[in-house]
Amino acid sequence: MTATTPILKIKDLHVEVEGKQILKGVNLTVNAGEVHALMGRNGSGKSTLSYVLMGHPRYKVTQGSVEYKGQDLLAMSTDERARSGMYLAFQYPVAIPGVSVSNFLRATVKARRGIDVPVKEFRKELKECMAKLGVKDEFLSRYVNEGFSGGEKKRLEILQMALLKPDMALLDETDSGLDIDALRTVAEGISSFNNKDNAIILITHYQRILDYVTPGFVHVMQSGQIVKSGGSDLAKELEAQGYDWVAKEFASSGAN
User: Fold this and answer.
1) Distance between CA atoms of 215 and 82, rounded to whole angstroms?
2) I need a labelling partner for 132 at 20 to 30 A (CA). Which of 54, 122, 161, 212 fits?
3) What is the dihedral of CA 114, 119, 120, 126, to 10 degrees?
4) Are 143 and 92 in contact (CB under 8 A)?
5) CATH class of 8-252
6) Which tens digits make up the pLDDT trace of 25-43?
7) Is-contact 89 158, C-beta < 8 A?
8) What is the pTM of this model?
């Protein structure tokens, strides 16, 4: 990947699920160092886009292309996408009974980096990341997401992201189910992760997380398309006025 190659370039992406078209021509370019917020009502296609990018087998691409660091993303398996630096933080993380958080994190780091990180080195890095997210030591011996609160699940997602150091992080409604304190902590973790070499797509319904993670770009999805884009002020406008005015603007443009 050259300095001018986008981390992610989506062109005219159409996707269907069980014969029903969900995405209807998504176009989006994300460069290194950028934070993009993807907003919109339920059913607009936001989460579908994240699942497609990660390679969920349920979603069928019928048209369009996706380039990831200059390569054909759609030709890569889900495993290849993850190893090459694409990461998805789930809206509803699943529990993995019998697998401790510590073992889970070490296994994912090994898979991502392609080497077995020495225990002492891994523990040091892990503790530093845990301190930033306010995660206690006893967290490590618990089974992944089993009995976790909403805030604990989201902290684990961001902790994993901090350790994996992905190039492209897709955060699917990371703010859902969080109280104010947990939201602030998770948002600070996201902000500290972002740098000139990686990029973030932050999927959210609400502007509140954007008070802590300031996006350079805000996009609104409607009916499977990105229908409006702008800067961080667009999120504040949506918070104040809702999505109706965007939907009306989209309808009046004659788009479909």
Assistant:
1) 24
2) 54
3) 70
4) no
5) alpha beta
6) 999 999 999 999 999 988 8
7) yes
8) 0.92
